Every structure is written in C-alpha cells, then in structure tokens.
Amino acid sequence: MSDGPAGHVARSTHRPYAETPLRVPTRRFLRTSDGVRVDAVYDPGAAVYDPGAAVYDPGAVVYETGRAPHETGRASSRDLVFVLAHGFTGDADRPHVRRIAASLARHGAVVSFSFRGHGASGGRSTVGDREVLDLAAAVGWARGFGHARVATVGFSMGGSVVLRHAALHGEDDAAGTDAVVSVSAPARWYYRGTAPMRRLHWLVTRPEGRIVGRYGLRTRIHHRDWDPVPLSPVEAVPRIAPTPLLVVHGDSDGYFPLDHPLMLAEAAGRHGELWLEPGMGHAEHAAGEELLRRIGDWVAARAG
C-alpha cells in the first residue's frame, strides 16, 4: 500500500500484515492535507487480544517515527476499526474520550485523535470546518493497518464532522467510511437557542473567550470567521447514502433540543436510523456503557 498526498492512504485489495500484530496502543502525529500535525492513537482492541485488557496507558504507548503501518504489524483485514471524533474542548487523552475508546475497543480496533487546536495537535480549532481534514487523515491511517471495515463515530462537534466527512468522501474514496454514527450533533450552524450554546458562541467569537479556551480548556480557537460557510450537517446528510447512518440524541440534551436530530433524520430518509435516548444529556459525558455497547453492535452489523 503506497502513501499518497499528506494525510491520504490509498486503498488496496492487497493487505499483507506482519506475523506478530500490535498488542499495545501506537501513537503517531499525522499530517493533514493542509499541513496540520494531528495527534492520533491506534488501539488494536478486540482485533488481537482480550478486550478486557484494552486499557489505554499513555506510558505504554509506542510512538511511530516515519514507518509505514505494515512495518509495525497489522490486524486481520476482516476486523473492524472505529475512528472516534471527540467533541469541542476534548482531546485524545481526556478521560471521557478514553472511556468511549475503551468501550468501542470491545468490538474492534479504535483510532482516536485530537482535532486541530486540541491537546497535542497543532493548528487552531475552526469549530467543525477544517476538522474534516483531520478526520480524513485519521481514517486513512486506520485503513493503513489493514482493516477492511472503517466506521466513524462522532460526538457533538465531532458528530457534525463525521456527517460532513461522509458526505464529502464516498465509498470508493480512500478516506471514505463503511458506517457513520453521529451522537448529539447539531443540525444547523450558528444555533444560540440554549444557554450552553450562547456561552460557547462567546467562547469562540470573543477575544476574551478565546483566552479562556486556550488557558482554561486547553483549546486554541481560530479568530477568523468561516469563509466560506461550510456545508451544514443537515445539508450533508442526504449525500451520505448509501453508507449506513445512525443518529443518536438524548431527549435531555442541554445544548441541542430535539428539533436537531429530527431534522437530521428527516434529511436522511430511509437510509438513516434515529435513536432518541430517554434521559440522556449531551455527548460523551452522557453516553452510558449500555448505549455504547448498542452503538458497537450496530456498527458491527451494518459496516461493510
């Protein structure tokens, strides 16, 4: 399998892998197509060992330094890999993100990463716009380990990113996916209808808010407005078919009320599925183990 442009790995039907597969998480800085360094972690999860042992330990992570994926070992190409897209102000090392990754690792391998401007990644956050390039780089890296099935799972901002990514990258694209799960995502941009979203807009649009984001939330936010305004999630959804799509939303979400998932479900039509979760709040912190198990089961059944 040959490397293409930065952040891109070409698909191939020939997927050789080493006799001794990876048994510890592997960490690498990926390069996106616009040159941003993105911190990413590959956890082989259930692909090669007991999922009960799939516990992330930063001290045990192996850093790759320029080696191709097959030089570090491959999982079986029959196995599934999840690419996990976190919410705004999250990153690959946050406990709530690691909890989600550990739960999904019971169903297959997991690639988690930090969006630009978050954690150890470079650049500055564009709050869902150019983050699509970060996800494309992570998906390409995931395919490089030999997995035949790749599913993207995104929360809140990450939920909007996985929708737009799937709309932009079809099934035959090297950065495309085989199933998409969007949890607690907005349907439209510039929503200020709830107090948490008004606070978020202050954080993003005001200089003093961006200072709070940088030093209080470890999130570096770009000062420029979107130009052009990216495709909205509800506009992206009809373009995802025939890739299987699952929209998950809590009926107690304090950020985005139920009109958001209902708009997404209506736009998806027959190719999408909607789960409205009773009593669930917003994003990763509100996603319980039982819901994560059901999401993993759904992906395993639908992807590929």
Task: Sum up the structure in keywords.
9-stranded mixed beta sheet; Rossmann fold; disordered N terminus; 304 residues; single chain; alpha/beta
What does this molecule look like?
With 304 residues, the chain is α/β, with parallel strands linked by helices. It has one domain (26-302): Rossmann fold (3-Layer(aba) Sandwich), CATH 3.40.50.1820. It contains nine helices and nine strands. The chain has helices at 95-104, 131-143, 157-168, 195-205, 207-216, 233-236, 259-268, 283-286, 289-302, and strands at residues 26-31, 37-43, 62-63, 80-85, 109-113, 149-155, 179-183, 245-250, 272-277. It has a nine-stranded mixed sheet with strand order 3-1-2-5-4-6-7-8-9, with helices on both faces. β8 (245-250), α7 and β9 form a beta-alpha-beta unit. The two termini are 20 Å apart.
Summarize, please.
The protein has 304 residues and is an alpha/beta fold. The protein is built from 9 helices and 9 strands. It has one domain (26-302): 3-Layer(aba) Sandwich (Rossmann fold).
